[in-house]
């Protein structure tokens, strides 16, 4: 039975500053580094030895995965980076202070942009500070100017099917170090979470979520390794 661990990156500098981050490549805070290391200790305590780690191309996810593996004493785990595991693109909200944005547009509207399934924020205007069109990491790719969770899932799911699922079906244990929304997209897919209920799914930073899968990659058990920082999980799909 394959095991999967989803690890959201530790606290980033813009998490600390309460800013919409999305694809901006900010680093971890000292607390974020500590969260990543604690996550690695919990992974080791759970006896989890991944055969491969998948991560995004963003520093906060890559460093979280690397720190966790190091803390767990896991050496020589192959690492595969792909932009399709990036955080969702926050469009025109990128870089803005969340509290100031709520004061300007209202709490309800900001909640819809942040937590709804299929309503994206306003698009990012081209040519600005956070225009990623010329970033070499995305050369030859279609770069979105905004994303909802739905369109994030639209890019994550093909990568899941093409790259991650085959490793799990082959019996490999897999660690994914990524972001709140790319991991929520995977949880929505695995647990068949209804569109109107995914708003209630939150994945805490640096807390490994272990999911045991059957041969069809249907979850049969799931738990956060740090129970004190756990968030409610969706019900397991019916067999």
Outline the fold blueprint.
Elements: E1 3-8, H1 13-16, H2 30-45, E2 52-55, H3 59-71, E3 79-81, H4 98-105, H5 107-115, H6 149-169, E4 174-178, H7 180-191, E5 209-213, E6 219-224
Parallel strand pairs: 1-4, 2-3, 2-4
Antiparallel strand pairs: 1-5, 5-6
Helix pairs in contact: 2-3, 4-5, 6-7
CATH architecture group name of the domain at 7-55 and 69-169 and 193-205: 3-Layer(aba) Sandwich
Rg for CA atoms: 17 Å
Overall pLDDT: 96
Strand content: 5-15%
Given the structure, what is the number of helices?
A: 7
Q: Kindly state the percentage of residues in helix.
A: 25-40%
Distance between the termini: 15 Å
Question: How would you describe this structure to a colleague?
Answer:
The protein is of the alpha/beta class. The protein has a domain at 7-55 and 69-169 and 193-205: Phosphoglycerate mutase-like (Rossmann fold, 3-Layer(aba) Sandwich). The chain contains seven helices and six strands; from the N terminus they run βααβαβαααβαββ. It has a six-stranded mixed sheet with strand order 3-2-4-1-5-6. β5 and β6 (219-224) form a beta hairpin. The two termini are 15 Å apart. The mean pLDDT is 96. This is 2,3-bisphosphoglycerate-dependent phosphoglycerate mutase. Homodimer. Substrate binds at residues 8-15, 21-22, 60, 87-90, 98, 114-115, 180-181. One of its GO terms (molecular function) is phosphoglycerate mutase activity. InterPro entries: His_Pase_superF_clade-1, His_PPase_superfam, PG/BPGM_mutase_AS, Phosphogly_mut1.
């Amino acid at each position: 039975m394959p095991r999967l661990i989803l690890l959201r990156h530790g606290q980033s500098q813009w998490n600390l500053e309460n800013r919409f981050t999305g694809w901006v490549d900010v680093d971890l805070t000292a607390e974020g580094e500590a969260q990543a290391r604690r996550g690695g200790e919990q992974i080791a305590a759970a006896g989890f030895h991944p055969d491969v780690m998948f991560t995004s191309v963003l520093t906060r996810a890559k460093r979280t995965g690397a720190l966790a593996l190091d803390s767990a004493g896991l050496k020589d785990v192959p690492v595969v980076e792909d932009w399709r595991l990036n955080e969702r693109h926050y469009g025109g909200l990128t870089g803005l202070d969340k509290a100031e944005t709520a004061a300007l547009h209202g709490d309800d509207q900001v909640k819809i942009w942040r937590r709804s399934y299929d309503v994206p924020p306003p698009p990012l205007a081209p040519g600005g500070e956070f225009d990623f069109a010329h970033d070499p990491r995305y050369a030859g790719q279609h770069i979105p100017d905004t994303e909802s969770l739905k369109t994030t899932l639209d890019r994550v799911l093909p990568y899941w099917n093409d790259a991650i699922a085959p490793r799990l079906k082959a019996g490999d244990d897999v660690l994914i170090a990524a972001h709140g929304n790319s991991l929520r997209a995977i949880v929505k897919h695995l647990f068949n979470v209804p569109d109107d209920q995914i708003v209630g799914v939150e994945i805490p930073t640096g807390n490994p979520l272990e999911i045991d899968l059957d041969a069809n990659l249907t979850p049969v058990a799931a738990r956060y390794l740090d129970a004190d920082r756990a968030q409610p999980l969706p019900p397991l799909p019916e067999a």
